[in-house]
Specification:
Structural class: alpha+beta
Number of domains: 1
Number of strands: 12
Distance between the termini: 25 Å
Shape: globular
Order of helices and strands: EHEEHHEHEEEEHEEEHE
Largest sheet: 6 strands, antiparallel
Number of helices: 6
Helix content: 10-25%
Strand content: 35-45%
Strand order of the largest sheet: 5-6-7-11-10-9
Length: about 190
């Protein structure tokens, strides 16, 4: 089994590497099938690599709820896009993409949702041993009134962030329940894997 940090957890991996090594990290951008070496201090080394993305079977009803512009942007990416199956959020989606990543920003009913998918990973053999083993399949974090659910789907690492316009006055942002419930509705809206 290859030991690496999934990209959604890349921030955590880089933060842990900096925390344990005490030095800044330089991460190179990579194209499909390529790899780039990185060095953290003289003690930490790793490789940034493209991951194997698996095509998704799109939910056609959810896909139809996207605007024409959002569908076109998502279709232009070789990566699949997964989004919450919420009519109002899908209708408001603004999709962006680049080499090795795809993202969407959505707003409805006082809730802002951001979805980020990454198709690169950092191979760092010693990191998992240092932090005590593999990462959980789904992780939930909370910072500055934003709930983040991280998971893997279609070979990619994903992060779903939710933030309430009224902050802690909105029950959806006082516990991880709403973020977990929204993450449970995630469906593919594009095929990717092209």
């Amino acid at each position: 089994m290859r030991r690496f940090c999934p990209s959604a957890a890349m921030i955590l991996c880089v933060a842990l590497a900096v925390w344990t090594a005490g030095a800044p990290v330089a991460v190179a951008q990579v194209a499909d099938g390529a790899a780039a070496d990185i060095t953290v201090d003289d003690k930490r080394e790793g490789r940034v690599v493209a991951v194997d993305v698996t095509p998704a079977e799109p939910d056609l009803a959810a896909r139809a709820r996207l605007s024409t512009e959002a569908r076109a942007t998502a279709d232009a990416s070789p990566l699949p896009l997964v989004l919450p199956a919420d009519d109002a959020l899908l209708a408001s989606a603004v999709v962006t993409s680049g080499d090795g990543w795809i993202a969407a920003s959505m707003q409805a009913d006082g809730l802002h949702v951001a979805v980020h998918g990454l198709a690169v990973a950092v191979e760092h053999p010693g990191l998992l041993a240092e932090v005590g083993g593999a990462f959980d399949e789904v992780r939930v974090a909370h910072s500055h009134a934003i709930w983040t659910v991280s998971f893997e789907a279609h070979g990619m690492a994903w992060a779903l962030d939710i933030e309430c316009a009224t902050g802690p006055q909105d029950d959806r942002c006082t516990s991880p329940s709403a973020a977990r419930a929204l993450a449970a509705t995630m469906v593919a809206v594009t095929t990717g894997g092209q």
